[in-house]
Design goal:
Layout lengths: L1 E5 L15 H19 L6 E5 L10 E4 L4 H6 L6 E4 L8 H8 L5 E5 L5 E6 L12 H11 L4 E3 L3 H4 L5 H10 L4 H8 L2 E4 L6 E4 L6
Parallel strand pairs: 1-2, 1-4, 2-3, 5-7
Antiparallel strand pairs: 4-6, 5-6, 8-9
Helix pairs in contact: 1-7
Length: 208
C-alpha cells in the first residue's frame, strides 16, 4: 500500500490567524503531519510526503517536491493501490485507519466536512483526483463515470480536518496524547466547560 500525504507550509491554516501567530500555525501544521504519519506508519513503510518546492520539514518518511498543482502532482503518482491522506487529520488513529483500508470498493472515500475529501483509497489506476470545491462529490462522480464501485467511509475521527476554532475545540476534547493537541495545551489553549456549550479559551497569550 502506497500512501501519499500532501503538505504545504505557506501561510498554513490562515483561518486561525486571529488566534495563532504564523509561527504557531506552522508548528501546529508540522505536528499534525507527524500525528498522521505516526498512524500511517503502523501499516506501511511506503509513505510519501508531497510538498511544494523549498518546503522544510523533518519527518521520518520520503519527501518529494513538486511545483505543479495538487491534482497534477497526485495523479502523476497513482500506481497500484494508492491512498491519499490529508496532513491535517490529527484525530486519525490505528483503529480508524484499519477500518478504512479494510473497506471494499474500487474507490474508498472518507469525506470531510463541507464537501471535502479527507482520505481517498484508489484501487483502479484509471481514477484521477480532483480536489477543492466539493471534491467529495466530484470524486464520486468520477468513479461512477468509470463504472467503479465506491465505498463511503463514515468516521468522526477521519472527518475532522483542522480549519477553524471549532476544529481546535474538537482536537482539544478528543486528541489526548496527540502531538498537536499537547502543543495547543502547552501554549495556553483549553476547553471551558463552565458554559452551556464547551468553549475554546486561551489562558496565557502574549500576543493578544
Amino acid at each position: 500500500m502506497k500512501v501519499m500525504i500532501p503538505f504545504k507550509l505557506k501561510n498554513p491554516k490562515s483561518r486561525l490567524s486571529s488566534i495563532l501567530t504564523l509561527d504557531e500555525r506552522i508548528h501546529l501544521a508540522k505536528l499534525m503531519l507527524k500525528d498522521v504519519v505516526d498512524v500511517v506508519s503502523k501499516f506501511t513503510d511506503d509513505i510519501l510526503i508531497l510538498v511544494p518546492p523549498n518546503t522544510e520539514v523533518e519527518i521520518d518518511a520520503k519527501i518529494e517536491e513538486d511545483s505543479r498543482d495538487l491534482d497534477s502532482a497526485v495523479n502523476a503518482r497513482i500506481v497500484g493501490d494508492t491512498a491519499i491522506i490529508m496532513s491535517d487529520l490529527p484525530l486519525l488513529n490505528v483503529k480508524t485507519l484499519k477500518r478504512f483500508f479494510d473497506c471494499d470498493g474500487d474507490i474508498v472515500i472518507a469525506p470531510g466536512r463541507k464537501g471535502g475529501t479527507n482520505m481517498l483509497l484508489i484501487r483502479d489506476e484509471r481514477f484521477r483526483v480532483s480536489y477543492h470545491y466539493g471534491s467529495f462529490f466530484k470524486h464520486i462522480a468520477i468513479a461512477e463515470r468509470l463504472g467503479l464501485k465506491v465505498e463511503i467511509f463514515d468516521s468522526f475521527y477521519a472527518s475532522l480536518d483542522i480549519d477553524d476554532e471549532s476544529d481546535l475545540l474538537e482536537l482539544l476534547m478528543h486528541g489526548k496524547g496527540k502531538r498537536s493537541c499537547e502543543y495547543l495545551r502547552s501554549i495556553g489553549f483549553e476547553v471551558d466547560f463552565s458554559k452551556k456549550d464547551p468553549t475554546l479559551v486561551r489562558r496565557s497569550n502574549d500576543r493578544f
